[in-house]
């Protein structure tokens, strides 16, 4: 019952289930399964049931309801909510109760969605495995000895474990697409500026975007339609009309669409051959639906990861300077007496030392170095120039084709703990996803089968800026003729690996 938005809407309009019954089913499912999965950092039964009861009351009163009326939604804990804590899975913000809602959360409420809680993530969205969380790791519902991907690991896992049908994640270098791929669900990173970043706690402001996760394109299209659009409180928000994504996915024919096969990613080393095979299989599906396939090169794609890992930490080091224990965030005190620490600079240093985890500190140091006088020309300013070349590659490609097809990740979900001590290996998970963020274009991750261990693998479609409709249309055609998105994990297995990291 909790797998599909359209089914949830139908059940209510047919009078077969109330919003309260649907919300209760979601809460019960979360309470049963989340002891193992740990997808949620915060759940509020009372608020959830009250929001659902309000939908039922207004339906009975004959009021017109929003497009997501009574649909349970989970929200990544990097998006401000006035009635729930917002922690970024960091000790630094463990006590933060924002006084306002983020732009996307406002829109969810206006669409009458029922927000059930906040989901776990890598601290401040820095990571690819959800292991960098102050609230413990999230487990992959397909195999609880494996990571769910990251940083929106909780948002992808709660959908994959059928706790809620849809969720909101954020994507700075792959954090929607990569966990969606590893959890066997569908995820969209929108065009930079298409969705409001107001009330999204900043990681790297020139790259961050909010986007939807769900089982299928059918499920994420109405969520994307709800959250897209201008917000004057975000100066980078695009003041352009948003068409209907729900209408855009009607149809089955890809005739006239040219799809570029990304040659470098198909030839890259260290990529699981089953993933390359899945991309080739997907290409055949698109061809059969009428699309024309063309080989495409993106000559600077080998620089995506190095460029991203200069720009993102640089912006992060600046954004995170506000957390000093005085203006914002965890404030260190004398352990024995609880008294102030003396000089303000001691409070700054100790608060940041206690509040931030190891990966966040690493990013702050990397970024501070890349921006520092004497090094900025060699690192940050050079990375900006390479970013322009990367963007030009995409512009050239999109003068020849309408969409680009390739992998999302080099491998399926890896075992918990296997890469946490090796940052370079972790950063290489972002090999195929960072390009879209650097170029500001939309990209979609679609389930495309299983590897030899039965773990989900995925394909990625990328489109020119603001062509979300084209992307979702092609994705929905793919899902009409394939059934990878209808597979469900067996989440009833007992967990033998539970253990919370501090
Ligand atoms: N894995 C990437 C990183 O660690 C991407 C994170 C993201 O998109 N938020 O920075």
From TrEMBL:
InterPro entries: Amidase, Amidase_CS, Amidase_dom, AS_sf, GatA. Residues 21-472 form the Amidase domain. HAMAP family: GatA. Gene3D superfamilies: Amidase signature (AS) domain. GO terms for biological process: translation. It holds the Pfam family Amidase. Allows the formation of correctly charged Gln-tRNA(Gln) through the transamidation of misacylated Glu-tRNA(Gln) in organisms which lack glutaminyl-tRNA synthetase. The reaction takes place in the presence of glutamine and ATP through an activated gamma-phospho-Glu-tRNA(Gln). The gene is gatA. One of its GO terms (cellular component) is glutamyl-tRNA(Gln) amidotransferase complex. The keyword Protein biosynthesis applies. This is Glutamyl-tRNA(Gln) amidotransferase subunit A. Keywords: ATP-binding, Ligase, Nucleotide-binding, Protein biosynthesis, Transferase. The active site is at 76 (charge relay system), 151 (charge relay system), 175 (acyl-ester intermediate). One of its GO terms (molecular function) is transferase activity. It is an enzyme of class 6 (ligase).
């Amino acid at each position: 019952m909790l797998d599909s938005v359209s089914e949830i809407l139908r059940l209510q309009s047919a009078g077969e289930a109330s919003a309260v019954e649907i919300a209760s089913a979601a809460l019960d499912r979360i309470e049963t399964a989340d002891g193992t999965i740990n997808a949620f950092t915060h759940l509020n039964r009372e608020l959830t049931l009250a929001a659902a009861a309000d939908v039922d009351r207004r339906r009975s009163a004959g009021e017109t309801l929003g497009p997501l009326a009574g649909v349970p939604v989970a929200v990544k804990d990097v998006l401000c909510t006035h009635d729930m804590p917002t922690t970024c899975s960091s000790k630094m913000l463990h006590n933060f109760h924002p006084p306002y809602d983020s732009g996307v959360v406002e829109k969810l409420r206006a669409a009458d969605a029922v927000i059930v809680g906040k989901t776990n993530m890598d601290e401040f969205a820095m990571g690819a495995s959800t292991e960098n969380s102050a609230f413990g790791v999230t487990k992959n519902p397909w195999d609880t000895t494996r990571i769910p991907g990251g940083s929106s690991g909780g948002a992808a896992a709660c959908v994959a474990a059928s706790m809620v049908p849809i969720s909101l994640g954020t994507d700075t270098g792959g954090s929607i697409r990569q966990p969606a791929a590893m959890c066997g669900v569908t995820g969209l990173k929108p065009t930079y500026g298409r969705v409001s970043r107001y009330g999204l706690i900043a990681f790297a402001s020139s790259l961050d975007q909010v986007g939807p996760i769900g089982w299928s394109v059918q499920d994420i299209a109405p969520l994307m339609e709800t959250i897209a659009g201008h917000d004057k409180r975000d100066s980078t928000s695009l003041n352009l009309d948003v068409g209907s994504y729900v209408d855009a996915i009607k149809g089955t024919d890809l005739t006239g669409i040219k799809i570029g096969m990304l040659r470098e990613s198909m030839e890259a080393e260290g990529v699981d051959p089953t993933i390359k095979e899945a991309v080739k299989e997907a290409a055949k599906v698109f061809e059969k639906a009428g699309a024309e396939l063309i080989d495409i090169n993106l000559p600077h794609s080998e620089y995506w990861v190095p460029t991203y890992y200069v720009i993102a930490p640089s912006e992060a080091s600046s954004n995170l300077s506000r957390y000093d224990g005085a203006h914002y965030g965890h404030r260190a005190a004398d352990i024995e007496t609880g008294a102030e620490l003396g000089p303000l600079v001691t409070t700054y240093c100790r608060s940041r030392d206690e509040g931030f985890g190891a990966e966040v500190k690493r990013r702050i140091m990397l970024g501070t170095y890349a921006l520092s006088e004497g090094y900025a020309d060699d690192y940050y300013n050079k990375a900006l120039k390479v970013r322009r070349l990367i963007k030009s590659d995409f512009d050239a490609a999109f003068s020849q084709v309408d969409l680009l097809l390739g992998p999302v990740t080099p491998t399926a979900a890896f075992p918990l703990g296997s890469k946490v001590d090796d940052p370079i290996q972790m950063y290489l998970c972002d090999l195929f996803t960072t390009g879209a963020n650097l170029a500001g274009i939309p990209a979609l991750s679609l389930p495309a089968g299983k590897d030899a261990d039965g773990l989900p693998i995925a394909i990625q479609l990328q489109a020119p800026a603001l062509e979300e409709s084209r992307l979702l249309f092609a994705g929905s055609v793919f899902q009409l003729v394939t059934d990878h998105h209808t597979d469900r994990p067996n989440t009833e297995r007992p967990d033998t690996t539970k253990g919370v990291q501090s």
